[in-house]
Design brief:
Helix 2 packs across helix 3 and helix 5 crosses helix 6. Strands 1, 2, 3, 4, 5 and 6 form a six-stranded mixed beta sheet that branches. Strands 7-10-11-12-13 form a five-stranded antiparallel beta sheet, with no helix packed on it. The protein has ten helices and 15 strands. By secondary structure, the protein is α+β, with helices and mostly antiparallel strands.
Length: 411
């Protein structure tokens, strides 16, 4: 029989005190405390051996010696790597194997548990996954909230290659605006070239709601480099699952190493993390390879002076006014504020006007119904099929972004 589920240690002390007095029978006492007689005699004998009530607590049944226990040097190295990186057993196993310390993932996990170094992850598995087949087919870009500092705040800007998970860019911004962000993008383009497409959310850097169309001046500059822009659905961060997971890893690393409190400390901290993430940290989705092992630079180079776009011969080409408006038969129609003073192509279709900028349709205008709509089509970042919001693909008779140069122009 067992002790009552109240306070076992307290019951044992009460039992031993009464049993040691010799005034009550052991049978009656054991029946009262709902324990067996052998258990009662065991605890009375224990007290007579040590003469300390405090020693009546349950002793650990763990053996004093375990022949299979991991050697102290190996265990110390596991703990040291965990404290240095904050990584889990799968990633630590790769580092240990490279140091010729062969331990299984299960053994490493047990060591971390024994040392109370395990922290449960709160995220669940991804429901669906996609991955581009080659580097630079798609970059994911996002900002990681904001970190309040003793003076001001920091907004990390991340740019991640979809195929390799290689962080091509990681920058500290004092505030979220195009003047701060675009020089970082230019630096990234100089280092790694131009991707085919970029996936981003509806953040204010690259999506503007006020002008009736999502283009900002920064996103227009990306279009001028021949980059296709893809936008994730509102309130669906899983569309950008890789960069979101990257930000989770970044947050864990910052908490592990200590979050910088001064802005001038952030660039060095982010550079250290980016180097570790790209070159040293094994990535489970890559078969425990490092992102640097799968990434290579894009062959497309950044253009300092963007050539004027040459629309097909015979096109109706107009220049928008300073407010991004188009004049048609004496009436003004809004197209896009970020395209002020830019040349656009106007096509007539079914009594409507289709306005395109370079390789993309921008707006549909219906003069009869006096309505104007942004041309946005839902496309999946994985397949190009309808899903998250994206800019409409190039029209069929438009030339490729690397078309003939007519004259140079920089926006």
């Amino acid at each position: 029989m067992s002790w009552n589920e109240v306070d076992v240690d307290d019951q044992r002390m009460q039992f031993v005190i009464r049993a040691s007095s010799g005034k009550e029978s052991m049978t009656a006492l054991c029946r009262e405390f709902t324990i067996s007689r052998p258990t009662g005699y065991h605890w009375r004998r224990r007290y007579r051996e040590v003469r300390l009530l405090s020693d009546l607590r349950e002793r650990s049944r763990r053996p004093h010696h375990s022949p299979r226990l991991t050697a102290t040097r190996k265990e110390q190295r596991v703990v040291a790597l965990r404290q240095q990186t904050g990584w889990g057993a799968k990633k630590l196993r790769v580092l240990l194997a490279e140091e010729e310390i062969p331990l299984s993932v299960r053994t490493i996990h047990r060591i971390l548990e024994r040392r109370q170094l395990i922290r449960e992850d709160s995220h669940g598995p991804a429901l669906t996954r996609f991955e581009r087949s080659e580097p630079n087919e798609l970059w994911q870009m996002d900002t990681k909230g904001q970190y309040p500092l003793s003076v001001g705040e920091c907004h990390p800007l991340s740019i991640l290659d979809d195929h390799s998970r290689y962080a091509v860019g990681l920058y500290a911004l004092p505030e979220l605006n195009g003047q701060q962000a675009y020089p970082c993008l230019v630096e990234t383009f100089h280092c790694y070239g131009i991707p085919q497409a970029m996936l981003m959310d509806r953040g204010p850097l690259w999506w503007s709601a006020w002008n009736g169309w999502g283009l900002t001046r920064l996103s227009v500059r990306l279009i001028e480099q021949g980059i296709q822009l893809l936008y994730g659905r509102v309130r669906h961060p899983q569309t950008q699952g890789k960069v979101e997971r990257f930000h989770g890893t970044l947050g864990q690393a910052m908490r592990h190493r200590g979050v910088p409190q001064q802005f001038d400390q952030w660039p060095a901290a982010l550079a250290e993390f980016r180097l570790s993430y790209n070159e040293w940290r094994p990535h489970e989705a890559l078969g425990m390879k490092r992102p640097a092992e799968r990434y290579r630079r894009s062959p497309r180079s950044y253009q300092e002076n963007v050539p004027e776009w040459e629309y097909p011969t015979g096109s109706d080409v107009r220049r928008l006014n300073s407010h991004g408006m188009l004049t048609e038969q004496g009436e003004r129609w809004f197209v896009c504020g970020a395209l002020s003073d830019q040349r656009v192509r106007v096509e007539r279709f079914d009594g409507k006007l289709l306005v395109s900028y370079r390789h993309m349709y921008i707006r549909e205008i219906d003069p009869v119904k006096r309505k104007s709509h942004a041309l946005v089509v839902a496309r999946s970042a994985a397949t190009g099929e309808p899903a998250p919001v994206a800019l409409r693909a190039p029209c069929a008779d438009s030339p490729a972004p690397e078309s003939k140069e007519k004259q140079t122009k920089e926006v």
